[in-house]
Design a protein that fits this description.
7 strands, 676 residues, 27 helices, Glutathione S-transferase Yfyf (Class Pi), Chain A, domain 2, five-stranded mixed β-sheet, mainly alpha, 55% helix
């Protein structure tokens, strides 16, 4: 029987034939495609003619296409539409792929040919993108152990393989803990304060599980977050909070404490093998921040600017609680609840007021219209394009001349096989190797509130921001226009990758943008300007507290990864790292680190600071749009040509300065956040 992962895709636009791919296809396809890639790469390594940029660097760039295609499908679906069987397949495939990658990266003959080209780089007459590909290829081999002695190479391989397996296991534990927990409510009085659509979905979930007349709430974001913000029953808020913050902390098969400890220890060892003092030193060599001291100075500077105001915000909530006659001490499970009540009082604004204007389908249309007004691209749904789940929608993306730019998938609702959060990913990167543009295949995955029996999916404003954020990442992928796929789209430094996503959120506060889509789902009335003003004013509400929260994650990340002593106790390290930042009493039996997927199951290790770093960039960049007009074509075209289309073809600061005319400053961020 033929394996669809090994055959040319005969689908529209050569997208993955999701309906034909079965779980049993993955491992054979990966094994065979590795053999194919190995043959291609050994042909490059063992060539007898002198090494050139074309026969070595470009040839290496083109190798392994079938393997890359199969693995991207497996790992993307393992996040968006997984099962126990697929998780086992991924666990088995991950070390195989890591071993092959190490085999190639440590091939002495191949590295000798790459080095031969690198050593004469200045005499080759390469353009900026070719130079970047050569530099990235050479450094990639060095950073993967190509320069080590045989003994250290062997150990490097072992460490890399174990790290890949541990990262997967960490994420699976968090997902399993999230999916397993249910808060079952039998007494209707315990629902007081909760929005009707939330309780209706909870009743539907209970009915699906045979608990008629009851309500089930989960740790999935669309259930957990509004529960913590609106539930009047404090004991139940505490119960939910403790459940959420103890995920993967309880002793047993899903406890992540030892996994975190092993990950930190092995990352430190890997960095040491390559001659770095810490894992952060290793990572930050290829970031805009460059070194750990710069990251810590950046975080500390923002901490000093935000802490006093954040403390004032906490005191404001305590005073408000007293005003309401509440006598108990402010705890973490109280913050969202009383913060939301005070926000409503101060700005006469809450999610229930604005949600009717943010029907999901209309927000999607608004995102598309915003992209069209800025960058001249349009979106057309195409039901003939295969999807991996019936809820996913597929679109063709075209430019003003009608040329196909990309394929775009949108996957919005939570389900058991999908991990929490929101992200953008790619099934195929844009490239232009032979003068013909290969269009990218891009997807965004979210976990929004689904429709109920009598109401469409209505988004909170924060969810509108999330959709714009992930779509900003998608634009980075869809508008890419580079020669090499490995430098395309989001293949940039990690502390630069959030600029396109975070800047796109800014349009959500602009009347010109909101008027495109923010219309009442029943009456069709546009969102009142008064509401837009309240949204803007409320946007800096407790911004110092939010800044402190982000900084705490950045400091925690650096505490794990900028250390020469890797012998740690996870709970003690977190308590020590967060002590200067914490605004609440410590709650025993809770821990952030064991569920901190960004740094232990994702790509943000020693890089979580980049969210705040990118906020500096996006505030500074959007200031130019504000100055010239938020839909100013010339500014939008400059952002497209210098940032979105260029990917990682040049150093990010050079690309940024070309757009902005100067290096960024923190001034615009501080002003926007009300911290100046």
């Amino acid at each position: 029987m033929s394996n669809p992962l090994l055959m040319p895709f005969s689908t529209p636009f050569e997208v993955p034939p999701f309906g034909e791919i079965q779980n049993e296809h993955y491992l054979p396809a990966i094994q065979q495609s590795i053999d194919m890639a190995r043959a291609e790469i050994l042909g490059i390594a063992n060539a007898t003619e002198p090494a050139t940029f074309e026969n070595t660097i470009e040839a290496l760039e083109k190798s392994g296409e079938v393997m890359g295609r199969a693995t991207s499908i497996l790992f993307n679906l393992n996040s968006a539409e997984t099962s126990e069987e697929m998780q086992k397949i991924t666990q088995e495939a991950s070390p195989i792929l890591t071993a092959f990658n190490n085999e190639i990266q440590q091939n002495a003959r191949l590295f000798a040919r790459i080095k031969a080209v690198y050593d004469v780089m200045d005499s080759l007459g390469l353009n900026a993108e070719q130079s970047m590909l050569l530099e990235k290829t050479y450094k990639g081999f060095i950073r993967s152990g190509a320069g080590l002695n045989d003994g250290d190479k062997k150990r490097f391989k072992e460490v890399a393989m174990e790290l890949s397996t541990l990262g997967l296991k960490f994420g699976e534990n968090v997902l399993a803990e999230t999916n397993e927990y249910e808060l079952v409510i039998e007494d209707e009085n315990d629902l007081k304060g909760l929005p009707g659509d939330l309780t209706q979905r909870a009743a539907m979930l209970a009915a699906e599980k045979g608990k008629l007349g009851q309500w089930i709430f989960t740790l999935q974001a669309p259930s957990y977050i509004p529960f913590m913000e609106y539930a009047d029953n404090r004991a139940l808020r505490e119960k939910m909070f403790r459940a959420y913050m103890s995920k993967a902390l309880k002793d047993g098969d899903r406890d992540n404490k030892e996994i975190v400890k092993k990950l930190v220890t092995l990352r430190k060892e890997l960095a040491g093998l390559l001659g770095y003092n810490t894992y952060a030193d290793f990572v930050l060599e290829e970031r805009m921040a460059m070194r750990p001291a710069n990251v810590k100075d950046f975080l500390q500077d923002l901490l000093e600017k935000a802490k006093h105001k954040a403390e004032d915000e906490v005191e404001e909530i305590k005073a408000y609680m007293k005003e309401l006659g509440v006598e108990h001490e402010l705890q973490r499970w109280d913050w969202g609840y009383y913060s939301e009540k005070l926000r409503k009082k101060k700005y006469d604004l809450d999610d229930e007021l604005t949600k009717p204007y943010f029907q999901l389908e209309k927000v999607i249309d608004g995102v598309f219209q915003t992209a069209e007004k800025l960058y001249g691209i349009s979106f057309k749904e195409n039901s003939n394009i295969p999807v991996y789940h019936e809820e996913v929608k597929a679109y063709e993306v075209t430019d003003e001349a009608g040329e196909k730019m990309a394929i775009f998938w949108a996957d919005f609702f939570p389900r058991k096989g999908k991990r929490g959060g929101a992200w953008m990913t790619s099934f195929r990167d844009q490239e232009n190797p032979d003068g013909k543009r290969v269009i990218p295949q891009v997807s965004i995955v979210c976990n929004f509130t689904p429709s109920s029996a009598d109401q469409p999916s209505l988004l909170k404003f924060d969810e509108v921001l999330t959709l714009f954020h992930e779509f900003g990442h998608a634009l980075h992928g869809m508008l890419a226009n580079t020669r090499y796929g490995s430098l395309s789209g989001t293949s940039v430094y990690w502390d630069f990758v959030e600029l396109p996503s975070q800047i796109f959120e800014n349009w959500c506060y602009e009347k010109e943008c909101l008027d495109l889509f923010a219309k009442h789902y029943e009456t069709g009335e546009s969102i009142p300007e008064e509401y837009i003003d309240r949204i803007r004013k409320a946007s800096t509400y407790h911004e110092a507290y939010a800044t402190m929260r982000q900084l705490s994650f950045g400091f925690l990340d650096m505490a794990f990864h900028d250390r020469e002593n890797a012998d740690i106790d996870v709970v003690d390290l977190e308590r020590e790292a967060l002590a200067p930042i914490d605004l609440f009493p410590k709650i025993e039996g809770t821990n952030m680190s064991v569920q901190f997927s960004h740094i232990f199951a994702g790509g943000y290790a020693a890089g979580y600071y980049s969210y705040k770093w990118a906020e500096v960039l996006d505030a500074d960049a959007f200031a130019l749009f504000k100055e010239r007009g938020v839909f100013d074509k010339e500014t939008a075209n400059s952002f497209k040509e210098n940032i979105l289309s260029r990917g990682g073809t040049e150093p990010p600061m050079e690309l940024y300065k070309r757009f902005r005319g100067q290096e960024p400053t923190v001034d615009a961020l501080l002003e926007r956040a009300g911290l100046s």
